[in-house]
Amino acid sequence: MGKKERVSVKICVGTACFVQGGADLLLYNEFLDPVVLGGCDIEGVSCLGGCKDPNAKDRPPYVQIGGVIHGDMTQEKLCKLLAEAVHA
Amino acid sequence: MLELNNQYTVMKRQVHAEVLKAFFAGTLEQEVDALPIKIIPKARIANRCCIYKERAMVRYRIMALMGINIETEDDELKSLSSYVSEVMEKDKHVAPILTTISTACSSCPPDRYLISEACRGCFARPCLANCPKDCITFSNGQAHIDDARCIRCGKCKEVCPFHAVVHIPVPCEEACPVNAVKKNEEGFVEIDYQKCISCGRCAMSCPFGAIVERSGVMPVVKMLKAEEHVTALIAPAIEGQFPGTLAQIKQALLATGFSSVMEVSQGAETTSLHEAHELNERKSEGKGYMTTSCCPAYMELVDKHLPFLGERRSSALSPMGYAAEEAKKANPQTKTVFIGPCLAKRVEAVKLKTIDGVLTFSELASLFIAKGVDVREMEKADLGKTDSFEDCREFALSGGVASCVLSRYAKADEVSVLPINGIDKKMFRTMKIWDKRQPEADLIEVMCCEGGCINGPGVVVKPSVALKLRGGNKAAAPVKAMRSIVGARE
């Protein structure tokens, strides 16, 4: 069995995301399952552009997981999505 | 206190950002009456009873942002646009800082202890044994509390092995240290402004958002729009509130339209020196303990509730006071705007007369969003020479003020320090008896908010996040994210 690729996670820290709850996501060391944490490369990045789309259905904060942008992110939602991504 | 990360915070910030966007676009008067509908669209699943009530609440939040006293000036027949044009004409009177929205108030019933389904009706029955009023009875195999006799001491809750006893508080009443928040005859919240010390705890704790701050944002954005010379006086707590370094935050302020930026830590140096000098005088004259004077909610507390402490507090101005003097000296034409985490600072600002406006970090965040300023994308501004007051950035944390005073005091090891880390009901009671029994300390550092200013009512992030992003705590930060968030700090 080949080594599994690590999941790339980009947390948007543009002002809008940071202010609307994105800042809490930066505490990932505390709320993520260590196993999941070990399978991810997490970094804070500049505005992903999610908030600039006038037709967007979701709202800040945004997180990009393996190339896909997710909005309305919360700690719980991030736990769930990352667990799925890591164990996939 | 309500967790900062919640639906209400998100809604409030969205409202603020939308209003400010429209203001800078010059369309606020035309757009403002449509904003509640834009922010609460038909398709929304309401958190309150219905979208119409939510829209009504957005209307009140906009009024609060305009600085309108909702208790006295609410006129349901008046359009938001006419309120806006009034505010454009003339700034609102500042006091009182807080106002209540009675229709938002859920009229929480009086606080009580309740024994839940989780009660196993155990044999030991520590609740029964420890209740000082004998108000616990057993029926159907479970314990019950007789509300009429219960004195709400909470003993039963402490001793129940199954955690079956719940305390249902009235959050605003519980949060107020001085019993200024009460329910009126109809059960709606009311604030006694004769008692209120403007600490903002009640506003931070109401889960319905029924107590709001009358914002000071409009006078400031009017100055910015008129391109006046405005100096931003940034409180020591600002570091860690935004995703960037202090130098980037300064640049972001300049990009937002402020003409110059000054760290209030600079004024904190003067405060520390003054207090160290005063402490020395008092100690050599055997005058007993001295308290700090930089927390404006504490100053209000002394003025309104603990007058005997008047002679105990340091005569130093707050860091904001000295910084404002400095800024006016550098440029007498400049308008000074204090940007901090504090509501009570606005009360102090009115008294000082050297401060022309006050913003909270939360309002600044909305201002950044409205102006499209991304702190993280900013170049690093030159902070100037900061060596002498760098340590004073710790004024934002509990213990920080005392340590700054002591580091400027020759015989620091002879001074005993008592930090008052947050004033709640219990601490207020303790402070009341200082009149009769002097506290055993030379220097008492008083901060109304637990943890210090980084936990104030106007913050953007919770203290745990702020601490990670602040300079002194690099080690605590998640390495990779830290590198990318704050850029190269060195």
UniProtKB/TrEMBL annotation, chain A:
Protein's name according to its UniProt entry: Uncharacterized protein
Record-linked InterPro entries: Thioredoxin-like_sf
Species assigned in the record: bioreactor metagenome
